[in-house]
Structures are given as C-alpha cells and as structure tokens.
Amino acid sequence: MKVLLVDDYRTSTDSLANVACSMGHAVTRAYTGLDALVAASGEGAFELILLDIGLPDINGHELCMRLRASEKYASRRIFSLTADEDVGERFDMSCFDGQLLKPLSLEEFESLLAG
Q1: DSSP string, 14-60
Q2: Where is the Response regulatory domain (predicted)?
Q3: Angle, CA of 38, 39 and 44, to the nearest 5°
Q4: Domains of the chain with bracketed CATH
Q5: How many helices (H) and strands (E) does the chain have?
C-alpha cells in the first residue's frame, strides 16, 4: 500500500515510516503541509494518509480539505493525527475517515495499515 505520513515532528514520522516499511508498505514522508501537497500531486495516489493537525504552514484540517477537493483523494483513507483530544471543538473533522491520538500505539498503527 502507498502511504503518506505528514507530521512536522520528524522522529515520530520516521518511526511510523520504519514500521510501515517493515510491513512491506511504500511510504512517503512529508514534514510540512506544502511538502504533502507536492507529494500528493505526484503520479498515482496514496491509499492511506495520516495528517498531523498542527503543521507549521498549513494545518492538517485545511490540508485534508484541499486533498478531498481533488477527485484523486475524494475517497481515499485520510486520518488525522494529533495529541489534542479536543481538536473536534475547533475543526469540523468530518473530512477525515477517523482521528488518531498521539502517541499512536504500535498495535493501532499496524491495524490501520492492515486495513
């Protein structure tokens, strides 16, 4: 599966990428919203995207809305990733397929990757 991991906290992103790669997935990392948009505009489409809400340039909610506006990502699996349990009070999270809380457990991440 092609996976896009978007988080400005590089250690977390790299750790999740290592787990996904060890499970045989093709992983692209992005540390900013702009990097994610560039990666998403490339050839093919990611089948799973995890978006940190608190990115330094474009928040994850806005990024999700931009991705959903394209036919390419209108029906792909996109999950928010945040340490903020109250994120739903600030954003309409309906554009996401689900919300994941940091720190993300290894079991939860592996289950998500397994489909």
Answers
A1: HHHHHHHHHTT-EEEEESSHHHHHHHHTSSS--SEEEEES--SSS-H
A2: 2-115
A3: 120
A4: 2-114 (3.40.50.2300)
A5: 4, 5
Q: What is the pTM of this model?
A: 0.94
Residue type for position 88: G
Q: Is the peptide bond before 103 cis (omega within 30 degrees of 0)?
A: yes
Walk along the chain (115 residues) and give the pLDDT tens digit of each residue.
Answer: 999 999 999 999 999 999 999 999 999 999 999 999 999 999 999 999 999 999 999 999 999 999 999 999 999 999 999 888 787 788 788 999 999 998 888 899 999 999 7
Q: Token pair 């928010």 is at which residue?
A: 80
**Pair 2, 93: CB distance under 8 Å:** no
